[in-house]
Structures are given as structure tokens and as C-alpha cells.
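hi! just following up on the protien thing from before. the input was this:
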Amino acid sequence: MALISCKECSKQISDMAVACPQCGAPQSHGTSEMAANNFPTLNQVQQAANLGQLDEALCMMDKVLKAHPNNAKSHFVRAKLFAMQGRFKSSGDELRTAERLKPDLSFATPHAVQELKNQLAAATKLPGQEANLIIKTKSPKSQNPPSEQQKRVQQVTTVAVLIGAFLIFRSCTAPLTPEEQAKAAAAKSEELAQKAVKRCEDNTMAKIQAEDFVLKNLKAPSTADFSSRSNNQFTYLGECKYDVQGYVDAQNSFGAKIRSNYHVILQYQKDFDRYVLLNIEIKGE
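and the predicted 3d structure came back as:
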């Protein structure tokens, strides 16, 4: 094993690395080695997820994590897949594992991390979700025997669980037919279209991403304190473009904390599920 430079950020990494631990950029040598060892790549996992084949994508991640159990990015990807299935408790567990292995989650964009955390936070407020299924029972001394109706419900639930387990197992062993793949792709396309409409109307994510662009232009980004939402100005420019204005308090080159006003214009690209910077201005008061 030797050290080489990452093709994206130029930092020193192992020549055996599948992806850079600093920026998350995939390394072609690592991808080739994974293929040689019959390990699925993260790109293959993402393609399966985009086609709606979430169980298959999770099967792939199981293989990756079995070989690399301490890979924080793989745990993060698994957390996103669980969230897409509505399995929010499992998603939260995987996210905490990723944060334990790499607290700053620097391999993912702030937008991706915040989006996942927002999903998990929203899930805890919805009844019936995995994240907040809490069953209250009486103590054994005062608990009454289950009625016939309760027994039937328990039997039906058990059968449903077994069927679900069988379908997951089948999805891991039997690939989808072309017709099933086409239906899954159409459903995923519709889901992405609806998601894009919501994202275009979400100025909260626009604020988060605008602040991320501002951080990249500060001398000491770790000292930054941004203005609250009530002190920001949002203007929707159409075509998923936002004009975001606010201020940030951060240290300059001499260590003095000063206030600067920022003006960011950014656009959400629905085809790539990302924000791009169109213009940025940062002026000190």
C-alpha cells in the first residue's frame, strides 16, 4: 500500500482507497479493485436506488460494509437508503454510526446531510412511522389475556412480516424483469419530479446552501455566525433560482471578528439534485 494524491482535492490518500476520505471523490483504482473483488461500487448502488430498486441497493451496501465495516460514507449511504424506504429508525442508527466514524461527515455535502436530518426530524412527528413506534404495555401482573380478535391481528401481522422478509430476500437473489425495471424507473422519475417542485419552493434549503457557498469564501469559516432566518431576505427568481441576502460574523486574516453582508444567487438543478452558485458578493461593513 502506498500514498497517492486524490484526483479531486490533491490530499494524500491510500492507493487502495475506493473514495477519498477527505472529499468523498471516487478513485478509479479503488473502483477497479472493488469490481475485481466482486464488490458493488457506490455508483452502482446509486443507479439501483434511482431505479427504485432500494432492496437491491441495500443488498449491495451489505456486501460493501461486510468488507469495510468502518467506512463512514457507506454507513451514510445506507442511512439515505433506509430513509427512502421509510425505515427511519434504521436510518438514524446508520447516520449516528457514520458520525461516530467521521464526526464532520466531510465526504457529503452540507445539503445532503441536512436533507437527511430534516427527513429524520420530520419522521418523528408523524404517527405510525418506524422512528416513533412506541408500544405501551401493562405490567405482567395486571395484563389481561389477549382476546380472539387480538390473536387474529397478531397472526396476520406475523404473516405480513414473513412475506415482507421473503420479498426482501427475493429481491436480493432475483433481478427485476425489464418490465419491472421500466415501471420502477417511471415511478422514480415521477418521485424526482415532485421532489424538484418542492425543492424549488424550499427557501430553507436555499439558505443552507447559500451559507455553505459563503463559508468557502471566508478566511476562518469555523468562526462564522450567520444571521437568523428572520434577518435574511429571500427572493424567488423563477426556474428554481433564489436570491439570498444576509450577514455573517467571522474572523478576518488578523483574527478580528467582523460583520460582512452577503448576497448569493443560486439555482437548484433537479436533474442532478444539487445547487449551483450563479453569483456571490461578500462585503464588510
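The longest strand covers residues 257-269.
The domain at 39-132 is CATH 1.25.40.10 (Serine Threonine Protein Phosphatase 5, Tetratricopeptide repeat).
cheers
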